[in-house]
Structure formats: structure tokens, C-alpha cells
Specification:
- The protein has about 550 residues and is α/β, with parallel strands linked by helices.
- It is built from 17 helices and 13 strands.
- The strands form two sheets. Strands 9-8-7-12-10-11-13 form a seven-stranded mixed beta sheet, with helices on both faces. The protein has a six-stranded mixed beta sheet with strand order 1-2-4-3-5-6, with helices on both faces.
- A hairpin with an 8-residue loop joins β1 and β2.
- It is elongated and about 100 Å long.
- The protein starts with 10 loop residues before the first helix and ends with a helix.
Length: about 550
């Protein structure tokens, strides 16, 4: 597996140094003077209020160092990857931040963390410092037991305790509030993969057809392997499991946490999927989706529920300096505005022509049948969606077939132009819309196609020989304009598409790719045009 790192032994130190140099760490500093002590602190801390410390193994970023700042943590004690920090590091952090108001330690429920933070707390007390400790065990995957793991809900304790400390509450008050939050939290995760702790030869635990429910943030096996399914099914399975652990009454604050490698588009789609679950009906506030407590590169998410207690809401909504904190928002229906009126797509009355109906149906079905093959071609020289773009055009035309003015080529082309402009994406879709729209202005459809091809070149900037779909389309249109048959046009389109195998790309995404990577690969747009004309010719 490819990763950005020098050595596993140095990645934590290098990552923390990078944090301090970044815009996220502008207000932070670290303790210096000991090789194995990785403690990140607020640079402005004056020991006037209760200090709030947390920490644990690294690999969960932005937790814990990313939440150091006014309104959240005073400091974070960072261990090596998935390993608790040592007693000396924790004691150093306590001594660095603790004044007369005292210090609260927020600790996830893992043996190493409990032992090391607990011993450090006792040593600090022996030195005359006021220290209290709260253990977080919010994972409900194995039921509500004293062995429950601390996972993403820990960050909500950071935020609420940090807000209370910033407001000037006493150590007893801050600790009591933190314990109330900890006792009210419920979390569970689902992932499509485990995580890799910078181990090049690690084999994946899950098969392609499996997901895992209730796994830990260190890659620990989940309570249940379930079949891979679509987003809504996986989200409902997770939300239902979480809801079953909650009180029967009351509304909740829900955190949607990303575990490491979920792209933002999928993260937002997961929240949309959550809106269709039963738990969504009891959700009053939302936090995220955001990566708060990750597991390196794990491809998964977790849900955390916390009762919508007014004190919790106020603390979560309070200002906080850390840029990794995403904030709190009402969970409400999507806000909308009426869409302005757009020109009608179907201006002309529908009419029929059996030959044109057959040609259009055959051509659209050919584009659909070749979607995967064209996408595979485009993946070698573009962004892998050319087949889907052409197929979507085919789907829209088939869907609208009974609304088309088939008896009038001029009106038909104009209608198809409007249809593609509205429903087909990508450069191919809009270029074909320009072709059809321009052609629809001319009573002679052959001459109209010629003019449409000229407009495609004017707007798109590509020309014959640039290795685009024009290299198949232009010869086909020229054959038709010369009065030749569809078979002749198909032959011309095929010759043009094949010629792109040896052309230098001068337009489109392929123009960014080294020429040797395109050798003997036809342009997918030109191939789509050739397939389209070949299917039309065979249908007659």
C-alpha cells in the first residue's frame, strides 16, 4: 500500500511538527526537551482556569491535538500509533498546564490509557496538584458494559468540558458535567475496510462483498460482518443499531464522524442517507459530517447520539478556536428556493415516424450497451466517465421518445438539442446539444449538421486531428452531407475513430497525458460516435 511517510517510527513526530507549522496550529506550541514526549498545548494558556487535557495513541487525527485551543482542550498528550502515551509525558503535560483551578483528564476506555493517565494523575496529586479524571466508553457495539471502548463521542466531551472550563466553572463542576456527558453518550461505527498502520504487506480483513458493523478505531474486528449493500441500507443498519441502545423518549444531538478515507461527497451523501432513518426523526441537532476521531485510512463512519439536554447544546454551540471542530447545526429539512422558469423542452407537438423511431431507439440502446466499455477506455485517457455521459444522453432520449416530433427532422433536432442541454452532463453532452440545436435551425438537416459541427468546433475549441469525437463525427457528417448512405457514414466514422489511436491529443483531458500512455488507445468519444453510426447503419 502506498503511503506518505518516511518511517513508521517518525510519522507521529513529523505529523505533529507539521500541525504546528500549519494554519491549524498557529495558536499552538509543544513541550520541548524530551525525545519521547509529544505534548501539544495552547500557546496563550495562563493557568487561570481549569485545564482540560486528553490524549492517547496517534492515528486518530484530528483527535487529539487538533482540538487543542480556546473553548476545547488545553493540551493533548500524543502517544505513538495506536499506543498510549507514557506516564512521564502525561505528568509533564499536567504540570505544564495546571494552576490553582486544577486539571481534568479526559481518557478513552482502553487499558493502556486508563493505566498511564491514572498513574500520572496520582503522581500529580502527590505533587499537590488538583487533578480529576473522566473515562469515556461510548461504544455500544458490545452493549453497555464497563469494557465499552471510547470512540468518537470522546470529542463531544472535549467540547462540552472545554466550554465549561472556559466559562470559569470549578474543577468539580467541569468534571461533573463531563461525567454526565460520558454517561449519556452512545456511539457505533461501520466500515468497508480495516485500517493499515503503515504496514506495506498487510492483507485486508474484509472481502469486497463485506462490511463490518461495530468495529473499533484501531482496526479491531467488529461485532458483525454484514453483506455489502447500498448507502441507505448500510446507514439504516447502523442507525437502527444505535437507536436500539437509546432511551425510548427524547430527542438527540447526533455526530456523524468519518473514520479516515471517506471522500467529502460520500460523507455528505451519508448524512442524506441518515435523514431517511428512524433515528433522524428524533434528531434535533447535527454535528458533521466531519473527520473527528479517525482510524488512519479506515473507510468508514460512526454515529454518536447524545440527549438534546439544554446544557449540552449550549456548550456544544459555544465558541471554540480549534479549526477542526465543525460546529453544531439544527437538523432540519433542506432549505429550498423556487427554481426560475426555464424554456420548455418540448415546444413542438409529438409526432411519429417509424424509421426515425427505430433509428433513435437503436442508437440510444447502442450507447447504453457500450457504457462500461467506453468508461474503461476513458479511464486510460480521461476521467473514466465518457461512456456514462453518452449513455445518459441515450437514456434521456429513450425516456422522451413518445414526446419527440419524429415526423419533422428539423423540429426533432431542435428538441434533442434542448433535451441534451438540460439533462446531459460533461463536455460531450453539451457539445452534442450544440450540434443538434444548431442543426435544428436549418430546414435541410444535412446542412444543419454541417453547421452544427462548425459550432461545436467554435465553442469547444477542438478541430479535426485533435484526437476527440470530432475525428469520427466530422467524416460521418461530411459523408451524409454528400448524399451518401448511413453505411458510408458509419465507415467514415469508424476510420476516423481508429485514426485517433495514433494521434497526439491536443484537446480535452487526454491532452494532459503523456503521449506514450495513449498509444494505440482510441479516443472514447470518437469510439462512441463510431459505435453509434455503426448501430444505425445495421438497423436499416
Amino acid at each position: 500500500m502506498k503511503r506518505f511517510f518516511n518511517t513508521r517510527e517518525t510519522i507521529v513526530k513529523e505529523g505533529l511538527e507539521g500541525l504546528l507549522r500549519s494554519s491549524y496550529g498557529a495558536d499552538l506550541c509543544r513541550l520541548d526537551g524530551a525525545e519521547d514526549i509529544h505534548v501539544i498545548l495552547r500557546r496563550d494558556w495562563q493557568k487561570e482556569r481549569v485545564a482540560v487535557l486528553s490524549g492517547g495513541g496517534s492515528g486518530h487525527e484530528p483527535a487529539h491535538a487538533g482540538f487543542v485551543g480556546k473553548g476545547m482542550l488545553t493540551g493533548a498528550v500524543c502517544g505513538q500509533l495506536f499506543a498510549s502515551p507514557g506516564v512521564d509525558a502525561i505528568l509533564a503535560a499536567i504540570r505544564a498546564v495546571t494552576g490553582e483551578a486544577g486539571c481534568l483528564l479526559i481518557v478513552k476506555n482502553y487499558t493502556g490509557d486508563r493505566l498511564n493517565f491514572g498513574i500520572a494523575a496520582e503522581q500529580a496529586k502527590a505533587l499537590g496538584l488538583k487533578v480529576d479524571l473522566v473515562i469515556i466508553g461510548d461504544d455500544i457495539a458490545l452493549g453497555r458494559t464497563d469494557k465499552a471502548r471510547g470512540i468518537a463521542g470522546t470529542v463531544l466531551v472535549h467540547k462540552i468540558a472545554g466550554a465549561a472550563a472556559e466559562a470559569g466553572q470549578s474543577l468539580a463542576e467541569v468534571a461533573a458535567l463531563a461525567r454526565k456527558v460520558a454517561g449519556s453518550l452512545s456511539s457505533i461505527g461501520l466500515a468497508l475496510s480495516d485500517c493499515n498502520v503503515f504496514t506495506p504487506d498487510q492483507k485486508p480483513r474484509l472481502a469486497d462483498n463485506e462490511a463490518e458493523l461495530g468495529l473499533g478505531i484501531h482496526g479491531e474486528a467488529g461485532v458483525e460482518r454484514i453483506p455489502m449493500a447500498n448507502l441507505d441500507t448500510l446507514m439504516a443498519r447502523t442507525a437502527d443499531k444505535l437507536e436500539a441502545s437509546l432511551p425510548d423518549e427524547g430527542n438527540f444531538i447526533v455526530l456523524l464522524n468519518m473514520l479516515g478515507s471517506v471522500p467529502p461527497l460520500e460523507a455528505f451523501a451519508l448524512l442524506d442517507g441518515f435523514s431517511r432513518t428512524s433515528l433522524a426523526g428524533r434528531t434535533e441537532w447535527i454535528i458533521g459530517p466531519a473527520p473527528l476521531m479517525t482510524a488512519l485510512d479506515m473507510n468508514g463512519f460512526s454515529l454518536t447520539a447524545l440527549p438534546a439536554d439544554p446544557a449540552f447544546i449550549a456548550a456544544l454551540a459555544a465558541d471554540a478556536a480549534p479549526r477542526s471542530w465543525p460546529g453544531l447545526a439544527h437538523f432540519a429539512p433542506v432549505a429550498t428556493l423556487p427554481c426560475p422558469a426555464l424554456p420548455d423542452t418540448f415546444v413542438d407537438a409529438p409526432s411519429d415516424d417509424p424509421i426515425l423511431r427505430k433509428l433513435i431507439t437503436t442508437g440510444a440502446e447502442a450507447l447504453l450497451a457500450n457504457e462500461a466499455r467506453l468508461n474503461a477506455l476513458d479511464a486510460k485517457c480521461g476521467d473514466g466517465d465518457a461512456g456514462s455521459t453518452f449513455a445518459e444522453s441515450g437514456r434521456q432520449i429513450l425516456k422522451a421518445l413518445d414526446s419527440l416530433p419524429l415526423a419533422s427532422p428539423q423540429k426533432l433536432l431542435a428538441t434533442i438539442g434542448r433535451l441534451l442541454a438540460r439533462h446531459s452532463g460533461g463536455s460531450s453532452g453539451v457539445l452534442l446539444s450544440i450540434l443538434a440545436t444548431t442543426a435544428g435551425h436549418d430546414e435541410n438537416w444535412r446542412e444543419g449538421l454541417q453547421k452544427g459541427a462548425a459550432q461545436m468546433q467554435a465553442y469547444g475549441g477542438a478541430h479535426a486531428g485533435d484526437r476527440t469525437m470530432l475525428d469520427a463525427l466530422l467524416p460521418a457528417i461530411e459523408a451524409l452531407n454528400a448524399g451518401k448512405s448511413l453505411a458510408a457514414a458509419a465507415t467514415a466514422a469508424r476510420a476516423g475513430a481508429d485514426a485517433t489511436r495514433s494521434m497526439k491529443a491536443r484537446a480535452g483531458r487526454a491532452s494532459y497525458i503523456p503521449a506514450d500512455q495513449l498509444a494505440d488507445i482510441p479516443d472514447p468519444g470518437a469510439e462512441a460516435i463510431a459505435v453509434l453510426f455503426e448501430s444505425l447503419a445495421k438497423s436499416l
